[in-house]
Every structure is written in C-alpha cells, then in structure tokens.
Amino acid sequence: MKEAEIWNKRYAGSDAARRAAYDPWLDRWSSLLPPGGPALDIGCGLGLDTEFLLGKGYAVTAIDFSGEAVRLTRGRNPRADVRLLGIDELATLKPARFNLVLANLSLHYLTREGTERAFETIHQLLMADGLFAFRLNASDDRNYGSPENASSWDRIEVEGIRKQFFTEEKIRTMTVGRFEIVSLEKMTTGRYGKEKRLFEGLVRPRSEGSFKNQP
Hints:
By secondary structure, the chain is of the alpha/beta class. It contains six helices and nine strands. It has a seven-stranded mixed sheet, with helices on both faces. Strands 6-7 form a two-stranded antiparallel ribbon. Helix 1 (3-13) crosses helix 4 (67-76). The longest helix is centred in the middle third of the chain and has 14 residues, at 112-125. The protein starts with a helix and ends in a 10-residue tail after the last strand.
C-alpha cells in the first residue's frame, strides 16, 4: 500500500484524529512571526495550523500529498489555497515567495537527500526576512518508534510509514549555509493521547543564502 493511501485511510477513518484539539505551538513565537502576508503550511493534515494562520490574517497556501487531508483542510478553511502536493514537489511552487513557512511534523518522512532538498527549497521560497518554523521527530521519541541509535539517516518503518528520527546534529546539518537558528529546542508534548518527544525550531534565511554541502 502506498504511504499516501495509508494517510488517506487514517484521516478518513479516525474520528479521534479529525476531532483533535489544536496544539497552539506557534503561540510562543507570536512576538517574532511576521504580521500577516503569504504563508505556506507544508503537510497541512487536518488543517489546524492553516486555520490558525488564517485567523492571524495570513494568506495561506496549504499542501499535502494525502487527498483526504486536502479535502478536510479545504472544508475547514475555504479561504485557503489548498493543493494536493507532496514535499518532493515543493519546487513547483516557485517563483512564489512566503514570509512564513510551517512544517509541523511533516518533514521527517524523507531520506537525507530528500531532507536536504526540502530545506534548500524552503530557503528559496522564503522572503529574505521570512521565518521557517518546524517540528521534527526527536531521536528519543520512543512512543512513536524511534530506534535505540538515531544517528543514522536510515528511515524506520512504523505501521507502514517510513520515518526519520532527528538528533540536534542532524538538524543543524540541514541548516548550515541556509539558515540562522533563532531557536532549536527538544521538548515533550502530547499527541493522540501519548507523550511525544520532538524538536521545535525557528530559523531565518542567511543573507548570503549559499549552501555548503556537509559530509
């Protein structure tokens, strides 16, 4: 079964997921986030972050590779531009530019090469003074399948979905030459009734914008 089909079934079949309360993770950045303008929600899922951004006055483009997620987000947010688009297709959004990009637990399904391409494309999609806010599976996210050693870039299959688990070093490798880190913090939150460990980051583009590949 393709992974998009797994997500379609999850979104279509889980009342608990569809009724999930919003985790207001962006509130802590309220003093730093740009006051409205074009925003991109990568992996919009149920459309909760899209709804938050619309309420703050942003013009939101939301993408997801799950058709069911796109349907749910459109229904929740008729004012958003919601598109059926995978993370590997981010470059098709160019030459659009955004002053805020979000990726809430949506970028940890990629290989190392795919992660590099995503970070580089997000850098290209951001305005010079824009911000990129993200959350990623942490290396000790045991309730959600993290391995004993998460230093490898090999993905782990959990319930049919291949996932990446991040150390701080991995994340910093993705930002080198692209982004200046405003904040990067490991934290514990709740998700679907279980404790979840994740990294939460806020970064801005480096003015020089040159990418230096790291070994």
